[in-house]
Amino acid sequence: MQTSTRWTxxxxxxxxxxxxxxxxxxxxxxxxxxxxxxxxxxxxxxADTVQALAGPRADADxxxxxxxxxxxxxxxxxxxxxxxxxxxxxxxxxxAVSGRTVVLNLWAYWCAPCARELPAMAEYQRRxxxxxTVLTVHQDENETAALLRLAELGVHLPTLQDGxxxxxxxxxxxxxxxxxxxxxxxGSVAAILPRSFDNADEIAAAVGPVIGP
Length: 213
Known about the structure:
It is built from seven helices and seven strands. By secondary structure, it is an alpha/beta fold.
């Protein structure tokens, strides 16, 4: 084999080896990326450690997430376990909403209409008391930003951290934010409302007729 040919083969081997190493370094395996190479959604960022969230959680001062109710809850969300943003505890979503009338408010920290709506949701919860449970669902990986937004707004509603949007997918909610899902106490979906509300009166007008007296 001629010297020039040997050098060509050697260079090709090095290039292939470097390319393979780079592919692995960038996450060519399935553990962090899908087959298309796009990032796999996560419930929260790696940066959102228990230590990093401690301060934002204290500032947000959220209400506890609902304790398990009576029954198994809606079949569509059974098996979905999410983090309660207020204290980091694990929440079985189906059991948390079981046996109670629930208003699920789906939002994200970067959504301007969501920020306008959240205080209205809080006011609606204050008015209805224990009759209805308003549970917000943060649909972005950045949990710290969610807590900071809630603290800024002075909204203390219980919140689930759902960066993968598993609840929305399970309940077939349109891909818009904010969106509100009303669940009856028997676990059935009373309404899916892919819209924003400006005040508590609008929320009451939309929710009241679908949950009944």
